[in-house]
UniProtKB/TrEMBL annotation:
GO cellular component: cytoplasm
Superkingdom of origin organism: Bacteria
Domain NAD-dependent epimerase/dehydratase: 13-260
S-adenosyl-L-methionine among keywords: no
Protein name as catalogued: NAD-dependent dehydratase
InterPro entries reported for this sequence: Epimerase_deHydtase, NAD(P)-bd_dom_sf, UXS-like
Pfam families, per database record: Epimerase
GO molecular function, one term: NAD+ binding
PANTHER family given in the database record: UDP-GLUCURONIC ACID DECARBOXYLASE 1 (PTHR43078:SF6), UDP-GLUCURONIC ACID DECARBOXYLASE-RELATED (PTHR43078)
Coiled coil, from the record: none
Keyword Ligase: no
């Protein structure tokens, strides 16, 4: 991309779901070199995630539901980005409630975001010839049929009518419509299938182990593992996820690509590390998984390594320390 041909000298980037965990972390990185248009309707996003960014002249927030068409003329604050002159260069589509505990309560919102919401953003990308990076999920694979790492070629085993189906099948449909736009309109579409990730700005009580473990450890409460001593997963730090997404946008990669960490840890090991790092008196307890707890899939990231030159750099100890420090410093945000 030749910056000298852009009216503002910086690319215009849309990040939908930009007040969420991943979207706000990506925005914080990309605002250093780009004009960021952050879109969120706050169904699950949190304004606290973007408070600092709101002070940045290269960042603008639109409270908008992407299931409705987007008219830039309704937002005079965007004039400085000169959209009519230079258009939109890239769209990162995160918008979708992701909390496992909300998959039933927000089922319709999830389905709408992945259908009409994704279509509206694809139409916008088509209008401006923008790169479209769709953030998908490991859960399009459903339940793993073996313990082997999952390749992108695995077609999945998803229950289309189960209590998790709005999210799992919604993400699958979003990939379908994005792929259709790529074929039909020659749109530059990328699909990133994210596996379990963690880091600063992640919500608690969302059905995700690491932020809940840290919050409880900081408050000397029991750490609850939904499973047993052998339950394991992989964990990729958010900075590595952001790096991967930026590499995907700039790449010539066609098709979907797995993004996640390749090292497996038992949840017991992660909980023990967190207790030690927090100098906590917490103890570990075990419970049967609730219906919304997804199966933990292990990614094969060979394609990302070969095509993007990407692999996770932040080890688990460093990532946990960074996340603990953020949550400790912002504990008031997490108080219930």
């Amino acid at each position: 991309m030749n910056m000298s041909t852009l009216a503002t000298g910086r690319p215009n980037i849309i990040i939908t779901g930009g007040a969420g965990f991943l979207g706000s972390n990506l925005a914080g990185d990309m605002v250093k070199t780009s004009n960021i248009i952050c879109i969120d309707n706050f169904i699950t996003g949190n304004q606290k995630n973007i408070d600092i960014l709101l002070q940045n002249p290269y960042f603008e927030f639109l409270r908008h539901d992407i299931t409705r068409p987007l008219d830039f003329d309704q937002f005079p604050e965007l004039k400085k980005f000169q959209i009519k002159a230079q258009g939109i260069q890239s769209i990162y589509n995160f918008a979708c409630p992701t909390s496992p505990s909300n998959h039933a309560k927000l089922a319709l919102e999830i389905l709408e975001a992945n259908s009409s919401g994704t279509k509206n953003m694809l139409d916008l990308a088509k209008e401006y010839h923008a790169v479209f990076v769709h953030i998908s999920s490991q859960h399009i694979y459903g339940k793993a049929m073996s313990s082997q790492p999952i390749k992108e070629s695995y077609l999945g085993a998803v229950d289309p009518i189960g209590p998790r189906s709005a999210y799992d099948e919604g993400k699958r449909f979003a990939e379908t419509i994005a792929s259709y736009y790529k074929r039909q309109f020659n749109l530059n579409v990328k699909i990133a299938r994210l596996f379990t990730c963690y880091g600063p700005k992640m919500a608690i009580n969302d059905g995700r182990s690491i932020p809940d473990f840290i919050f409880d450890a900081l408050n000397n409460k029991d750490l609850i593992i939904y499973g047993d001593e052998k339950t394991e997963n992989t964990f990729c730090y958010v900075a590595d996820i952001v790096d991967a997404l930026i590499k995907i946008e700039k790449s010539s990669l066609a098709g979907a690509v797995n993004i996640g960490h390749y090292e497996k840890y038992t949840l017991k090991n992660i909980a023990e590390r967190i207790i030690k790092l927090c100098e906590s008196s917490s103890v570990i307890t075990y419970k049967e998984p609730d219906w919304h707890v997804a199966s933990y899939n292990i990614p094969d990231i060979s394609l990302a390594k070969e095509e993007l030159g990407w692999f996770p750099m932040v080890d688990i100890e460093d990532g946990l320390l960074r996340t603990i420090e953020y949550m400790r410093s912002n504990l008031r945000i997490y108080q219930i």
